[in-house]
Amino acid sequence: MNVRYFFKYKLIEKNEPLGRFSHNLLLRGKEYLSAFEKLTAGDKLAEPYASYFLFAHALELILKSYLVACGVTKKELREKKLGHNIENIYKKCAENNIGHIDRLQQLVERFHDMTCGDELRYPRHLIIKLPLPSECANITRNAISKIEPTVSYAYLDYVLYSAAEARKNKNAKFHYND
User: Which CATH number do you get for residue 100?
Assistant: First the structure.
């Protein structure tokens, strides 16, 4: 933690609390999922690659929100083993007792194959079999309902700790520098 004085208040710089980060990851993942659902309403696929790319990113962020709520750091998320490897992210979630979520593992395996091979990002001469958008959304919404309590608990812990810290440092502003 670094403390500086900036005009009339003390500026306290520190790493972003994991409870706050996990909450923001989940919010962003839900936003991408919502965009995917709007693009594919009624299982229509006018823009399939863009839609499924959004979905894959939503799924990655949602699973990462669980990991962060369980104490996995930003540094660990950036390491090559996890990074954007959705299958390894899911395995790490399983190690952290995410529990069974119907058909999530199969969905992760399917999207791992598509995202690791860049099939969604770049033109290829491949025919890829995509799951129905409604199936993707339903499985992911079930995952959110399982993950959300853990993330909410971590966020609540952050809010309570931050309130106590703000009371101790009345004339301070906090800046997260990581």
Answer: 1.20.120
Tokens in use for 171? 């004339």
> What separation in angstroms does the CA of 32 have from each of 60, 61, 66, 90, 173?
10, 9, 16, 18, 31
Please list, in sequence order, all residues whose beta carbon lies within 8 angstroms of the beta carbon of residue 147, skipping any fewer than 6 positions away: 26, 62, 63, 65, 66, 69, 98
Report pLDDT digits (tens) over 79-127: 988 988 999 999 999 999 999 999 999 999 988 877 766 666 666 656 5
- Judge whether 169 lies within some domain: no
CA-based nearest residue to 39, from 133, 139, 144: 133
Considering only CA atoms, which of 132, 136, 117 is closest in space to residue 56? 136
Span 6-24, mean pLDDT?
Answer: 82
Per-residue pLDDT at 173: 76
